[in-house]
């Protein structure tokens, strides 16, 4: 076994829990036994698609740095060149062939809609070398600039999305989750049903009351889903998101609640999934003259950076949550592989729940 790439690990972290070179984090707990536990929850064979359409939210209102899919036809020759969507109205270039072929190209942000975050998505400035100088590091001490490489700008690019070609997560990329399979026992926590649609950062006490009321037990390796209703409201806006209305009714975890963060660690859950944009509600930036340096998204730091817990965002959970509530259930088989795209830091997903 190789030596750890850090001398000092962050407070509250579990670096090295699965070995110094581990890149799968708590998904290591989703083993054959957990898959069988998920399969055991299948009682009627009904399935639910847990993905929004890939072109939702719509536009860039929800996140100005992420753009919706733009589709193009694959370049062909002859009469069908540039006419992929309409080539059936043209005679085949070869009179002996009957085939009609359509191919697409898509340009989009991988984390635009329903998505998985990899551990390369969020790191932190932390003194892992214990030399008094903070460096950019990610889960298990993998380094920014060495293991996770940013892309230099191409000033000649004609499209804003193509300005920084060639970034690469040489470690901690989303392909690792795809290779693992991302299938196991899902557990639903219906925040909306108990708290209503008002804006609220849900802390440890509120979460424990819900778990007690529903008699929900979270066990090691469970894939935990949080239903807030956000994705359903977003989808109903027909790709024209009303940010004010959405923010007024946003539920999310309180990443500043230390007891909540400790609970996330102690339960040894495999991943956290929500139908809102970030699982947590972003922390307001401090405006004092001498603010303490801290993360804007403390739950992201705690999960992705410190503990190797994948996050899923903007999943569509409402239909499943209602069905589970009607049948007094909280567990199901969850199958949710991301794209096996080497070097990528996130991925769209089309998760399926089977009950």
The chain-level structural class is: alpha/beta
The low-confidence parts are none
Could you state the CATH homologous superfamily of one domain? Putative cyclase
CATH fold field value of one domain: Glucose Oxidase, domain 1
What is the helix fraction of residues, given as a range? Answer: 10-25%
Second-tier CATH architecture of one domain: 3-Layer(bba) Sandwich
Q: Strand content of the residues, in percent?
A: 15-25%
Radius of gyration: 22 Å
| Element string (H = helix, E = strand) | HEEEEEEEEHEHEHEHHEHEHEHEEE
Main sheet strand line-up: 1-17-15-9-11-13-14-4-16
Features:
alpha/beta; 355 residues; two-stranded antiparallel sheet; 17% strand; 21% helix; 9-stranded mixed beta sheet
Description:
The protein starts with 31 loop residues before the first helix and ends with a strand. The strands form 5 sheets. Strands 1-17-15-9-11-13-14-4-16 form a 9-stranded mixed sheet. It has helices at 32-40, 175-180, 191-195, 204-214, 230-236, 243-248, 258-267, 298-307, 318-326; strands at residues 47-49, 70-73, 104-107, 115-117, 124-126, 135-137, 148-149, 168-169, 183-190, 200-202, 223-227, 251-253, 271-274, 310-313, 331-335, 346-348, 352-354. It has 9 helices and 17 strands. It is globular, with a radius of gyration of 22 Å. The chain has 355 residues and is α/β, with parallel strands linked by helices. The mean pLDDT is 91. It has a domain at 26-61 and 110-120 and 171-285 and 292-354: Putative cyclase (Glucose Oxidase, domain 1, 3-Layer(bba) Sandwich), CATH 3.50.30.
